[in-house]
Write a sequence for this structure.
């Protein structure tokens, strides 16, 4: 399945999938469900900039015309005027556990290194999200450590694992 996975700009037809992924607790899964929120915020963002801004953006993860989920990026300040990207992913349940996530994350890293001056791409995930940790490692990320009380979900603060990949670690034309 993962060889056929590609990233593309979000299309208007993808918005119902994105809304369901982010607002349906069963589709979001145990690590991404953050409570009920305005499902129309995605359509407003799409109308504003096609979900591709300079500080934050979202791509559809697709196989042929079928949307499997989304990957996103946001700019994170580091030191002084420096910054890096933090990325995230949300896939439909049928696409999970088959390599699509690792492939999509590799493609996003390649895109960000090819089209921005960032030196670092990072990702954070809950310590109990073993599947995502494996996906990040398969995508070429290095585990850096545990950030205590970094995230908040389901009424309590949770520890998260920080992963990163640096520009010099990328092999070939942007592929970690």
């Amino acid at each position: 399945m993962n060889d056929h996975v590609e990233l593309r700009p979000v299309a208007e037809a993808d918005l119902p999938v994105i809304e369901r992924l982010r607002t349906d607790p069963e589709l979001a899964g145990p690590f991404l469900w953050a409570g009920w929120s305005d499902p129309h915020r995605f359509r407003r963002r799409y109308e504003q900039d096609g979900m591709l801004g300079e500080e934050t953006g979202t791509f559809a993860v697709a196989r042929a015309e079928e949307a499997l989920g989304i990957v996103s990026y946001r700019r994170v300040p580091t030191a002084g005027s420096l910054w890096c990207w933090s990325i995230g992913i949300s896939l439909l349940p049928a696409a999970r556990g088959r390599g699509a996530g690792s492939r999509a994350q590799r493609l996003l890293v390649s895109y960000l290194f090819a089209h921005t001056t960032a030196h670092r791409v990072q990702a954070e995930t809950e310590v109990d999200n073993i599947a995502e940790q494996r996906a990040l490692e398969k995508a070429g990320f290095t585990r850096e450590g545990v950030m205590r009380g970094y995230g908040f979900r389901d009424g309590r603060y949770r520890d998260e694992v920080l992963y990163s990949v640096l520009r010099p670690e990328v092999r070939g034309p942007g592929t970690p």
Remarks:
- Residues 100-115 form the longest helix (16 residues).
- The longest strand covers residues 66-77.
- The mean pLDDT is 91.
